[in-house]
Amino acid sequence: MNGTTRPVLVVGSGPTGLLLAGDLAAAGVPVTVVEKRPREISNLSRAFVLHARSLEQLDARGLADGLEAVGRPLDRFRLFGRLTLDLAALPSRFKHVLVIPQYEVERALLRRAEEAGARLRYETEVTGLAQDADGVTVEVRAAGGRTERLRAAYVVGTDGMRSAVREAIGVPFPGRPVIRSVLLADVRLAEEPGSLLTADAARDAFAFLAPFGDGYHRVVCWQRGRSVPDGRPPGLAEIKEITRLALGRDFGMHDARWTSRFHSDERQAPVYRVGRVFLAGDAAHVHTPAGGQGMNTGLQDAANLSWKLAAVVQGHAPQALLDTYQAERHPVGRSVLRSSGGIVRLVTARPPWAPAARAVATAVLRHAGPVRRAVTGRVTGVGYAYRAPRGAHRLTGRRVPDVALAGGGRLYEALRGGRFVLIAPRAYEVRGGREGRLAAVRWASGRRTTVLVRPDGYVAWAAEAADAESVEAALAAHVG
Ligand SMILES: Cc1cc2nc3c(=O)[nH]c(=O)nc-3n(C[C@H](O)[C@H](O)[C@H](O)COP(=O)(O)OP(=O)(O)OC[C@H]3O[C@@H](n4cnc5c(N)ncnc54)[C@H](O)[C@@H]3O)c2cc1C
């Protein structure tokens, strides 16, 4: 055996793996990331929006403000030329989507992971793995074609859609292709379409435009029946033609800095964990880019798994905590597949039903507040909650917004450092070896509920007028 033995090996340095590795390293867990690409950051744009829940998670890691300074916040979407979805009422500090290229998000996450002590090994490709009762042996092809075996207590496959980790543990990836030949480009426009995200479908074509804030716009477009060989690079003329069909004009697109043609599948792994090996991000689920949820869902997977792995590796929680990763994240993955698939089916509905289907959808969204809130909650990620044990307080499992704390702070600042946060009506002194893993704060509002917030910003436990014994019991059960 050569190479290192580490508690956790993360395979793949996309956004999911980088967030996970940064959290583990920040918690003091030695972690290695192996990545088959060379170190240079890929300049592919790929995903281009951060939704509110991802921004909250990044805020809990001190990264949101820096990314907000680079990207372009948009507080409204326009759909099908008729409907405007307004995010101003979103119950979040981030009442917008942030349009930002994926590589900027990766750059910030990489810097944080390395500063926290994560070890990155580039040009190192996982080719197989085997697990036993004590750990996992991972076979890699390192630079120069040399084969090495690395040993880790746990492995997380964040190695994307064609995950070698998923294949090595024998987990299938059932699903189907959904949409073929979607064109993407980052272009300059001679004519501004306004500050809104613009999307419309007409004459068997669909197009979508969003400004990055650096002079470029992302255009995504598709035309029914257009079948082009996979290898042919998309030309600007083709993109302009489809955009004109869908939106009525092409806004004088020029200077494409990046173009891509891709096919989109809907697939989900039936299990996210086999023994000591986990799957997260695109390795666990892929769906259409509609709603811009791919990268965002992967970031949430990582935020859910990282503190659990750290707690188990460091002996603060039982192994059973790791089972909650599948229980909590698999249903969210399924829901994202459904919602992004629903948007695509609406957009690609065949005539003569297409205009009627879109008219019904926009009417429902415009007039039915609860439906609009549910759709917005799902797309932005703030609407998801995790299942609570029977008899638990009604807040258990719910996402906690960025509440104000006594003394002028706010919750997502208190969460920095990957700690649990106890929000109580009275001052509580952290002791018993929990220092460093628990912060105790008070509500600014004088509320009487005591809430224990998990490091990923969901309620672990809550009680009204809690006494000292019940708080101690909750801390022992959750913080360890
Ligand atoms: C063209 C395109 C457009 C997209 N548009 C959007 C969008 O608009 N909105 C959105 O939210 N999402 C979009 N996505 C999806 C989004 O990019 C992904 O959801 C996101 O990148 C997933 O992150 P990840 O970290 O899980 O996986 P990835 O970003 O795929 O990262 C996986 C990493 O693992 C590495 N790797 C793979 N195999 C191995 C191996 N065997 N050994 C070591 N390393 C390995 C890869 O090199 C890669 O760096 C798009 C994707 C594509 C391809």
Notes on the structure:
By secondary structure, the protein is of the alpha+beta class. The chain folds into three domains: 5-48 and 101-173 and 269-347, 3-Layer(bba) Sandwich (FAD/NAD(P)-binding domain), CATH 3.50.50; 175-265, Alpha-Beta Plaits (2-Layer Sandwich); 411-478, 3-Layer(aba) Sandwich (Glutaredoxin). Helix content is 31%, strand content 27%. The protein has twelve helices and 23 strands. The protein has helices spanning 15-26, 52-59, 64-70, 102-116, 164-168, 236-247, 294-313, 323-348, 353-367, 369-380, 411-414, 468-478; strands at residues 5-11, 31-34, 49-50, 72-74, 76-79, 83-86, 97-99, 119-121, 125-131, 136-141, 147-157, 175-188, 197-202, 205-211, 217-223, 254-268, 273-274, 277-279, 285-286, 420-424, 438-442, 449-453, 459-464. Strands 1, 2, 8, 9, 10, 11, 17 and 18 form an eight-stranded mixed β-sheet that branches. A hairpin with a 5-residue loop joins strand 14 and strand 15 (217-223). Helix 7 packs antiparallel against helix 8 (323-348). The longest helix has 26 residues, at 323-348. The protein is globular. Bound molecules: flavin-adenine dinucleotide.
